[in-house]
Each structure stands twice: as C-alpha cells, then as structure tokens.
Design brief:
The complex is a heterotrimer of chains A (303), B (374) and C (301). Chain B contains nine helices and 20 strands. Chain B is of the alpha+beta class and 374 residues long. Chain C starts with a helix and ends in a 7-residue tail after the last helix. The chains are: A mainly alpha (303), B alpha+beta (374), C mainly alpha (301).
C-alpha cells in the first residue's frame, strides 16, 4: 500500500482518506477527554510545581523554577510518605493475590452449590472503599467495636496505634478488593483447559503438584496482569485513609495520595501538591515499567 | 449483462505476487471455476472481483462498468463464503433479508423476495431459527439464499462445499449446477477440488502461484493439458509422468524409457529437435495404459511397450489401480475396469498405450510439446 | 495401598485382610470425609468474608444500645427498620442516591460509547499512527488519578462546572481500559462477517451497531458493570468538586452520616447498606457476564 504504487487511483485514495477520517472521528471523543483530563494535567503539574505558594492565602505565589522540587522531594515528610506508600502496597498486593488465587482455586471445584460460594467470594466487589472503611472503622472501634471485644486489639487501639494503623488500613483494603481479585483470578482459571489438569492427574500429580506445575504457569498472564493493575491501584488508595486515619497517627498512614490531598485542600498549597503529584506519577510509571520488564519474563504466554 | 473481465490484474503483497498478470473473461451466464492448490491465488482473485481486495495493477470490469475502484457494496455482486459468514445473532429470515435492508427495499417487496429465495432452497420451515440451530448443509443454503435474494449480476463462491461431508457435497454439487441453470446466473467459483471443477464448470481456469496455467472447457483441459502442472492436477488418479531420454533411430525420434521406447509424433519430433531437448517428460493417463498381450503388438511402431513390474494392486470395487515400477524405479499407475483380468503382484509385464493418448512435455518449462494448445 | 505394594514379594499377608466390599466402603468414607472437609473450608472462608457485611446488616436493624451490648447480638430478633428511614431522611440519602445515580449513568454511558467507538476503530479500520494511538490509550491507565486532581479541579472550575453534575462526570467519560476491552472483543469476531456485510451493502457505521456490538454483548455488559461500579464508588473526585448537599454523592454522604450520627451506629450502618444495595442488584443481574466478558480476550493480556 505504498504511495508509489501505480495502482493507487484517486478514487481509492479518496476511499482511504474517508476511512482515515472515520477512524479519527471515532477516536476523537476519547482523545479529547484524555488530553484534557489526563495528559494536560500531567504536563501542567510540572509547571505548577514551580510556583511556591505563600503561607497566607491571598498573597501571590512566586516562581521558583525547580527549587520547590528540590525542597519537597528531599524533605523528610516526602520520603516518609513514599516509604509508607510502598509499605502499604507490599501489605496489600501480595496478600490480596494469594488470597484471591486461593479462593479461586477452591471455588473451581465441581461441588454442589459451588455457585453460591462464588457469589459470596465476589461479593465485596459491590463495596466501595468508603463503605468498607465505615464498616471496619466501627468494627475496630475500641469502645464499641466487635474486634476489640474478640480480643483483637492493641494498646493504644489499633487505628490510633502508630505501629499497627497501616496494617489495619491494609486489612480493610485487602478485604474490599478481594471480590475483584477473586473475579479476575476465577476468569483466568477458567481459561486453563481442563485437559491439562486431567493429564497431570493421570501422570500421578497430587493436588499441590498440580497447582504448582499446571495452575500457576497457566495463570501467570492473569496473575501478572493483576499484580500490575493491583499495584497501580494500591498507589491510588485514598478513601479508606481519609475515613479511618486521616494520614495519622503520627503520619504513619500518610500515603502519597493522602499527602497530595492534604496539601491541596487543607494546606491550600497547590504548588507543593503538584510536585508531589509529579513524583507519584513517576514512581508509579517506573514501578509499572519495572514490573513489565522483570516480571513478564517469568510469564508463560500460550498462543 | 453479468460478464466479468479481469484485465492484467495483479496483486502483490510486499514483493510476493499472489496474483500475477491475470487476464480472464467470464461470459454472461457462464459458470467459471478457478481451480488450483491452496496458495495459488484463486481466492485472492475472487476477492478482487468482489472488491474486498484492491489490485496492485490491472482493471476489473463487471457487466459494462469498470469497477476497479468501486467499493464492494456498490458492485452488485454476491458472495458465498467458505465459512458461510452468517450473522449468528440473527434468524435465518433476517440473515436473508439483510442485503435488502441496506438497499432500502420496501417491506412488502422485501418479504416476497425473501420468501422466494427461501422457497427455492427449501428453507421455508427454518426461517425463524438461528444459524447455531442449523446443520452445515442448511447453513450453506442460507448463505446461498442470502446471495440470490438480491439477484446480483455475478455470484462469487469461495469453496462453498469444502465444509460439507462427502455425501452432502455430491448432492449439493448437482443442486448448484441446477440453480445456476435456473437463475441464468454468472458464477465465478473457487475450489481446490478438481472433481468439482470438472463436473460443475463450463470452463476451468487452472492457477498456480498466482499465474494462470490454462483456461478451457473441462474436457479440453483434461484431454490437452497445456503444461505439466495442469496435467498432474486434473484427473484422479493423476496423469503418470515419467522422464525419458531423446534418441534418434534414423529419421524418427523416440523417447527412451528403461525397458522400452515411445515413438514421438512428427510435429512433436520437430519441436524437440528445434529446442534441442535431450530429455522429455512423457505423460499418459492411467486409464490410457494397458498391459501388453500378444494381441497388442498392434499398437504402434516399436509397440512392444515398456517393461514394468507390478508392485501393488488396489481394488476399488468398480475399478482397479495397478501400481507398477519401471526398471529405473519410476512409478506408473494403470487404471483398469473391474472386469478386466488383474495382473499378479510382483509379476513382470509390459505397458502399452495409444500414441494419441501420449502427451509430451518439455522438462524445463513444463510446457506441452507439439501443436494443439488448449 | 498401592498395587505394587500389594504385589511385592514378601508383603505381610495380614495387611491384606480386607474384603473388596470393605475396601469400597473405606474409599467411599474417605471421599465423603474429603467432601465434608472441602465444604467446611469453603463455608469457613465464606463466613469470614461475609461477616463484616452481615454484621452491618444486623447492626443496622438493632437499637444503638443493643449494638454496644456484650456479648453482641448476632441476629435482630426485633428489627428496627427505622434506622433506614432515618438514614434516608436525616442523612439526606435520598438526595445523595439521586446524585450518584445521575452521575453514574452519565459516566457509564460515556465510557461505554467512547469505548465502543474507539475499540471499533482499532479493530476494523486502518489508519496511520494506529499503534501509537493505541499505546496512548493504554498509557492513560498508568497515570494515577491523584496526579491529575490539581489541574483538573482548576480546569473544571474554569469551565464553570464546579459543583455540578457535568463537573462530576466529564473527566471520566472515557477510559483506556474500555477501549482495550472492546478492541479485544471486536477482534475475536470472525473476519468474514465484515466482508459479508460489506457485500451486503453495509458501511462501517451500520456494521458497528447492527452486527459488531450485538455480537460483542458480553464485553459490553462487562464494561457497563465495571464502569458503573467504579463510578458509583468514586470518593476523591466528588469530595474535591462538590461543596454542598445538592450535588454530593452517596459515598461522601456516608462519611458525613458517620460524623453526624456519632453514637447512632445503626443509622450509619443503614446508610452503608443503602449505598451498597444498588450495586448488589446490578451484580446479581450481571454476574455471569462479568466473567464471560473478561475472558473475551482482555485478561489474557
């Protein structure tokens, strides 16, 4: 289809032009949204980050170039926040996947009424982070919560406990995302042909061996996809922190997203917030690309 | 007027020519078969007629319009796909009327046309079923109905019978021939099955590697293949082709095989001498070979036949295939009727043939030697 | 007891003193025990997972005093449906529900339509920069939403859409995920259908809506469900872009309810349940489609 081909007549060129035009027209609505609300903000953030905001509202902000970047990105608060965010991801993603995969495998059996169990396992997909936070917040409430009554409490109480608060929020997050993780794992599991399991069984492989040598390799694309997406989501967690701990106690749950929100809304410092946002973007990007590069090697795609 | 003309049409993908300088004229009401092995370009040629592919060179005419740059939907052709391409989410009725809706045919007329098409293909009872509920043969007829409902100028068919089982295939073959006659339709039919080509087409166009090898009536292509490819492709079992050296015996030329020699007719001899060939390929169809008896010394000069050993005798009920080996191990198949005496396996014998049934080919170019090109 | 062990020479014959019937019964018992164990495990896990929701429903029907009682009441013998009415009225849940519904429908519609259009372009049309543009679509998934909020708040305000339905919905009218899902679904359609439709006289637009979309129904259903879920459960953006009850959504309403009904946990819980019910209904209807739509190529990567 090269332009130098002698057979490209004007009529044909017109036809191709129309097809091109139609394609761009179809993509236009989405592209407008993307450019306006995804890509432009990304670029604009970098620019916004160059303006230091005054401590008193009403005064103009000052252009400082990359100085603010330097200050913010080397500040202890920022580094702590990054650490907290990574810790949060580590607490939520692997556990979530292991649980989701385990549930999916268990629910994959041909038992009577297994559909009921599948519905229950996927039920938390109906909950939002707000709902989950409200429920667990009350459950963990030191005075009236059920969990302390069951003995699952610490001193100070868990959501005010600097050592345990993050874990508590992670628990809430794992519970809330379990439904979706289960659904993703279950559909991936459905894609594994039964013959593979049967062949392994005939070859004498026990349940654990079948899991390790058949299930895991065949599910690796799904697991990989879930890890990448799950990490991105973990880095975007906000609602549960806002409702449960508000970034505390002692900033121990001050993940980057909350830090950005706090800086923007409560401290009214959009410049600093923009810097943090840019940092969040790059961290997420590098993380995702790193996962794509290093983890994808261990994924066995089947064509 | 539903004629189709392909004028020096080529289709190149990068540097590979799927169709190379193809020129064919299909007359109105003709059933033309494009025959060849997979990858020979026949489907690509068909898709270019349909407008689903653009030729890289050449022009295409349908009726009296040049349609090379006209979009598929405006060419007034209908196509039956190998996979039938029925819309799975629509009933049979909706499938058949689909092409009429796009052309804004008024409802009453549309219903009548659909009923007629369904009727003529025996689909009346199936109109409200969905494709998934139909058998292969039924689906194929729905695809046909969808094609004929528009009364197009030309019908294009891409191996429509290949997904049917053998028995249904034979039955549907006859039905298609009858349909064509009834509708007075122009059909361009693609297949790799030479039995279909021989029984259905008014003319056959044999293709290989994008190039047209020969075009003609079935009996002509059968009796006078233009080259080795056609000779070997048409006919089942295929034509025997063996290589022999050219020897002269006085003024006469012979093709010498181990164990015998075959006389060359004068025109052929002249062509051989001109081309300075040292070897020729001899082609004889299995049904034109017989085993020599005392009585067959009647056959031709030097007609003591060619030495051969019988290796395997295959009986197919109504006929017999006797596989023989020449003294240099080349394989030859002889076809006998069941009532003829069968030779014993491992026996030595001699093969004879009527010189008129012997074809000679240039071993380099594959072209047939002598006059009378098909 | 393996066959080899049985046949090996020198085996202690006393071990084999079981008749075939006893052997069969033993295997049956073992299988039954295995089954019971499996059901027990599944049930245990189901209880653990459902417990928070269950206890929420129960507590929403108890009096506040009963909620704090120890040992806790696990079943509402005297259900107090009043908490739901309170959450609805006091907590303005009715307004919030309506707002959430409107915004969610707008977003879902927008995402599904833009995904269908873009997915079709990527699957069936040829145009320059096709691959680049597809990467661009996927790249939007990499940009965490929080990164865009600073500018988006400003943009929306400048457009005069602060505190409005449009402001709540507009940034989310398209997703890369949707386009990806629809592209995969369209690619699995048999190629011949497009050719057949072309010969039948159908251009791209009509083919898209009359053939491609009906045949890609599972993917469209899955996308609708996901879009609905995500939109309904949004939290951060509504907080940023609304300033009064007129446009607040259910999720924020829930947080407010928790703060205003500090000791009346039953009302808070009732509010949580109210927030969840529409989704539960949606999921019950679409459960099958979720898995089927995903396996139409998307999750396989």
């Amino acid at each position: 289809m090269s332009a130098t081909s002698p057979a490209v007549t004007p009529a044909r060129r017109a036809r191709r032009r129309r097809e091109r035009g139609l394609a761009y027209l179809l993509l236009l609505p989405a592209l407008i949204i993307f450019v306006t609300f995804v890509f432009w903000p990304l670029v604009h953030n970098v620019y916004l980050g160059m303006f230091r905001n005054p401590p008193f509202p009403g005064l103009p902000s000052k252009y400082v170039g990359f100085d603010q970047y330097k200050d913010v990105l080397t500040s202890q608060d920022f580094l702590d926040s990054v650490k907290t965010t990574f810790l949060f991801a580590i607490l939520t993603v692997p556990i979530g996947i292991v649980l989701g995969l385990g549930l999916a495998v268990l629910a994959h059996q041909q038992l009577h009424g297994i559909g009921v169990y599948r519905t229950i396992f996927s039920s938390t997909v109906a909950t939002s982070v707000a709902v989950a936070a409200v429920i667990f917040g009350t459950l963990m409430n030191p005075s009236i919560g059920l969990l302390p009554w069951l003995g699952l409490t610490t001193n100070p109480p868990i959501l005010q406990n600097p050592d345990w608060a993050l874990a508590a929020v992670a628990l809430v997050t794992v519970w809330q995302t379990l439904g979706l993780t289960f659904i993703l794992m279950a559909s991936g599991l459905q894609g594994v042909p039964d013959e593979l399991f049967e062949a392994a069984e005939v070859d004498g492989a026990g349940a654990w061996s079948r899991f390790w040598h058949v299930t895991l390799p065949m599910m690796s694309p799904t697991i990989f996809f879930t890890v990448v997406v799950g990490t991105i989501f973990a880095f975007q967690s906000f609602g549960q922190i806002d409702i449960l701990t508000q970034g505390g106690p002692l900033k121990k749950t001050n993940v980057l997203t909350f830090y950005i929100y706090d800086t923007l809304q409560r401290q009214s410092d959009p410049g600093k917030a923009a810097v943090l946002a840019v940092a969040l973007f790059f961290i997420t990007l590098i993380l995702a690309l790193g996962q794509l590069r290093f983890l994808e090697r261990r994924v066995s795609y089947e064509r | 007027m539903g004629r189709v003309v392909l004028d020096h049409v080529s289709k190149k993908f990068d540097d590979v020519a799927a169709v190379d300088d193809l020129s064919i004229e299909v007359a109105d009401e003709e059933f033309l078969v494009l025959l060849g092995p997979s990858g020979c370009g026949k489907s690509t040629a068909l898709r270019m007629i349909a407008g689903l592919e653009d030729p890289t060179a050449g022009t295409i005419v349908i009726g009296d319009r040049v349609v090379t740059d006209v979009e598929a939907k405006d060419r007034d052709v209908a196509m039956v796909f190998q996979s039938y391409a029925l819309y799975p989410h629509m009933t049979v009725r909706k499938n058949i009327e689909f092409p009429l809706r796009s052309r804004k045919v008024p409802a009453a007329e549309r219903d009548q046309l659909v009923a007629d098409a369904a009727e003529s293909l025996g689909l009346g009872a199936l109109l409200d079923r969905k494709p998934a509920q139909l058998s292969g043969g039924q689906r194929q007829r729905v695809a046909l109905a969808r094609a004929i409902v528009r009364r197009p100028q030309v019908f294009l068919m891409d191996e429509p019978l290949s997904n049917l089982d053998a028995k249904l295939r034979v039955q549907t073959r006859a039905e298609l021939v009858e349909l064509q006659r009834r509708l007075k339709a122009t059909i361009v039919y693609v297949t790799h099955d030479q039995v279909e080509a021989m029984t259905m087409g008014h003319r056959i166009a044999v293709m290989s590697n994008g190039v047209l090898q020969q075009i003609g009536r079935p009996q002509d292509v059968y009796a006078k293949p233009a080259n080795l490819f056609v000779a070997r492709f048409i006919g089942s079992p295929p034509m025997n082709t063996v290589t022999g050296r050219v020897v002269a015996d006085g003024v006469d030329l012979f093709a010498e095989l181990p164990g015998g020699r075959v006389p060359l007719a004068p025109e052929v001899g002249a062509a051989v001498r001109e081309a300075g060939l040292e070897a020729v390929v001899i082609g004889v169809r299995p049904e034109d070979l017989t085993f020599a008896t005392e009585a067959s010394s009647f056959y031709g000069v030097g007609g003591r036949g060619v030495e051969a050993t019988v290796t395997v005798v295959e009986s197919l009920g109504h006929e017999r295939h006797v596989i023989c080996r020449l003294t240099d191990q080349q394989i030859v198949i002889v076809r006998q009727d069941a009532h003829e005496a069968a030779p014993r396996e491992e026996s030595a014998t001699r093969l004879v043939a009527d010189p008129a049934a012997i074809h000679l080919f240039d071993p380099e170019s594959g072209r047939r030697l002598g006059t009378d090109d098909a | 007891m393996s066959v080899e062990a049985v046949l090996a020479p020198g085996t202690d014959d006393t071990k084999l003193q079981r008749t075939p019937e006893q052997e069969i019964r033993r295997q049956h018992r073992r299988r039954l025990l295995g089954k019971i164990a499996r059901y027990a495990l599944l049930t245990f896990l189901a209880i653990v997972i459902l417990f928070p929701i269950y206890i929420t429903i129960v507590n929403s029907l108890l009096l506040p005093a009963d909620i704090t009682r120890r040992p806790p009441k696990l079943f509402p013998t005297d259900p107090q449906w009043g908490s739901y009415a309170d959450a609805w009225n006091q907590g303005h849940m009715s307004t919030y529900m309506v707002n959430s519904a409107i915004v969610t429908v707008i977003i879902t519609l927008g995402q599904v339509v833009t995904a269908i259009l873009a997915g079709y372009a990527f699957a069936f049309l040829e145009f320059p920069f096709k691959r680049t543009l597809f990467v661009v679509f996927l790249a939007t998934l990499m940009v965490p939403f929080e990164v865009t909020i600073v500018t988006n708040v400003a943009t929306i305000s400048n457009l005069g859409l602060y505190n409005s339905y449009a402001g709540l919905a507009v940034p989310f009218l398209a997703t890369g995920f949707g386009a990806f899902l629809m592209r995969q679904a369209f690619l699995t359609l048999p190629h011949d259908l497009r050719d057949a439709a072309a010969l039948d006289g159908y251009g791209h637009w009509r083919f898209l809506w009359r053939v491609a979309v009906p045949l890609a129904r599972p993917a469209v259903a899955a996308l609708t469900v996901f879009a609905f879920l995500a939109a309904w459960n949004q939290y951060l953006w509504p907080i940023l872009i609304t300033k009064d009850d007129q446009y607040r959504t259910v999720q924020i309403g829930l947080k407010q309810l928790q703060q205003t009904s500090i000791d009346q946990y039953n009302i808070t819980f009732a509010g949580a349940i109210i927030a969840v019910i529409p989704l539960v209904i949606l999921l019950l209807f679409f459960q099958r489609h979720l898995v089927r739509g995903l396996t139409a190529g998307a999750v396989k990567g």
